[in-house]
Amino acid sequence: MVNRKELDPERSPRARFGQLLRALRDEHGWTQDELAERMGCSGTHISAVETGRRPPTPRFAASADRALGTGDQLQRQGRAVWHTAILEGFPEFVAHEVRAAEIRLFELGIIPGLLQTSEYATAITAGAVRRGAITEQQAEERLTLLARRQASLDRTPAPLVYVVLDESCIRRVVGSQRIMAAQMERLAAFAELPSTVVQVAPYDLGERRAFDLPVHLLTLSDRAQLAYAESAQQGRLERDMRFVQPLLTAYHQLQAEALSQMASVAMIEQVRKGTP
Fold it and tell me: Which residue ranges make up each domain of the chain?
């Protein structure tokens, strides 16, 4: 079939839904337009859902189940799309992150996931559950993905990881003082690794701090460079160097303005000991 896009079901729940929809449609020998006619929509809509460009709604899934005679199969698959705690776009970023040659991070207010202890990560997700932002099952989903990301750092050769933390990351108490002390120990130990650099951007950097939002930058083994950013509802992976290059330049400027790793670790140790 001409221009038939390959689907990667591991990329996201939306992609898994699209693959299932295509497989069921293929079993009937229908084109996208033929399925669309039975569902009362357009072939373009079917194509967008199958390729993950458009999320399926509960109404769409129910309509597809009726047209295909599949009971509630698509509706059950759709629940993973509607109730996931992982932003659309983030699994695609993780697929690149776990094999990147270089990882650059800037974070505000919270320790980046790759550097979190299990207790710190659990406290963050537990807080989201208490607020009603996510369910217990969604919390487990987040923690499972985080464990997978952290395990990927142990590969050979190890990726180079550069981290700049806004001072708020180490000052904000998450969970308890005991959890924070262990988290500070984790940061100090991470900074000692031969493939890492950890720096703190202090409060007095003021307007010289290059970013007001978290930044994720990846360099792949073929030297391709990617940037990831997210809103409250969606994440986006950016490959266009017209947008990635300015972020890299700003990141290098931030590294130059931030505390040295030695001074940063000294500040982290002060926080761990509870001294100002």
Answer: 13-82, 90-273
Look at domain 90-273 and name its CATH class.
alpha beta
SS3 content of the chain, % helix, strand, coil (to 5): 55, 15, 30
Strands of 17-129, DSSP E: 102-107
Instruction: Please identify which residue in the block is written with the tokens 């629940």.
Output: 79
90-273 has the same fold as 13-82: no
Which one-letter amino acid corresponds to residue 128?
A: A
Q: Which tokens in the block code for residue 123?
A: 């406290």
**CATH class for the domain made up of 13-82:** mainly alpha
Per-residue pLDDT band for 10 (boundaries 50, 70, 90) equals low
Coil, helix or strand at residue 233: coil
Give the position of tokens 């320790």.
Answer: 111
Amino acid at 199: Q
Of residues 102, 112, 261, the one with CA closest to residue 188: 261
| pLDDT tens digits for range 24-60 | 999 999 999 999 999 999 999 999 899 877 878 888 9
Q: Which of 227, 224, 222 is nearest to 248 (CA)?
A: 227
